[in-house]
């Protein structure tokens, strides 16, 4: 009988011989190779393949969905911008870099119970401050309800849209600053309000840059598109 603790057959041979231990070098080499191969395939090959397919089909989108005026690039359909002058509709707040920075896309990463999110800090405007500024700029009561996208940053910090409710509260300010009737500005907002994608995805939204450009074009010799 075998002295081993492993089960043995009638001849005394072990039925389950011990599995040889793999050397560390034999484990590291395939791990490194798999990372390199997957990086080349998924990080280089696949994006290049998609670009080669989509470029002839969707040249504007693959080029960044750029908006041109007078031969110059003034923005993109995909990236928000900061507007501060009263005659322009204002975008959603941004936490991407110094604001709307495409190279630093991201949110605040502050949880809903974080006091900094609500009360702010020396270098960060909290919800209370943003709400007070929004109400003051748009001539609203101190306790007037306002849309959440007016006082919170999006996850990317690059959102080019605002909600129709947000745009509606800015109409009076924009109309007064431009010397237009509120009804005329309201019609422009309605004309540039986009519905749900495919009729059921997402929510209605208003592209801020396109709306501001449309208002500029309304007025012969009106405010420029600089912001």
Describe this structure in words.
- The chain is 40% helix and 6% strand.
- The protein is mainly alpha-helical and 227 residues long.
- It has 2 domains: 1-63, no CATH class; 65-218, no CATH class.
- Strand 1 (66-69) and strand 2 (72-76) form a beta hairpin.
- The longest helix is centred in the N-terminal third of the chain and has 34 residues, at 24-57.
- The protein is elongated and about 100 Å long.
- It starts with 23 loop residues before the first helix and ends in a 9-residue tail after the last helix.
- The model is unreliable at 222-227 (pLDDT under 50).
Query: How do the helices and strands follow one another from N- to C-terminus?
Result: HHEEHHEHHEH
The percent range for helix content is 25-40%
What portion of residues belong to β-strands? 5-15%
Number of strands: 4
Q: How many domains, as an integer? A: 2
Uncertain parts? 222-227
Mean pLDDT value = 88
The rounded Rg comes to: 29 Å
Tell me which oligomeric state these chains represent.
single chain
């Amino acid at each position: 009988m075998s002295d081993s603790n492993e089960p043995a057959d009638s001849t005394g041979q072990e039925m389950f011989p011990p599995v040889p231990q793999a050397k560390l070098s034999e484990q590291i080499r395939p791990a490194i190779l798999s990372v390199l191969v997957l990086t080349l395939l998924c990080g280089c090959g696949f994006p290049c393949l998609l670009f080669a397919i989509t470029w002839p089909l969707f040249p504007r989108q693959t080029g960044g969905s750029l908006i041109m005026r007078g031969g110059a690039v003034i923005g993109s359909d995909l990236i928000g911008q900061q507007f501060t002058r009263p005659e322009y509709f204002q975008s959603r707040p941004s936490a991407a870099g110094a604001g709307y920075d495409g190279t630093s896309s991201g949110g605040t990463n502050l949880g809903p119970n974080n006091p900094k999110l609500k009360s702010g800090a020396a270098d960060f405007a909290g919800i209370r401050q943003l709400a007070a500024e929004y109400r003051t700029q748009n001539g609203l009561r101190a306790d007037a309800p306002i849309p959440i996208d007016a006082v919170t940053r999006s996850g990317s910090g690059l959102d080019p849209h605002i909600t129709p409710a947000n745009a509606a509260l800015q109409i009076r300010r924009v109309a007064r600053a431009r010397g237009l009737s509120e009804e005329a500005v309201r019609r422009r907002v309605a004309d540039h309000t986009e519905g749900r994608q495919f009729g059921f995805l997402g929510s209605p939204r208003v592209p801020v840059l396109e709306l501001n450009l449309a208002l500029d074009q309304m007025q012969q010799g009106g405010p420029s598109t600089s912001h």
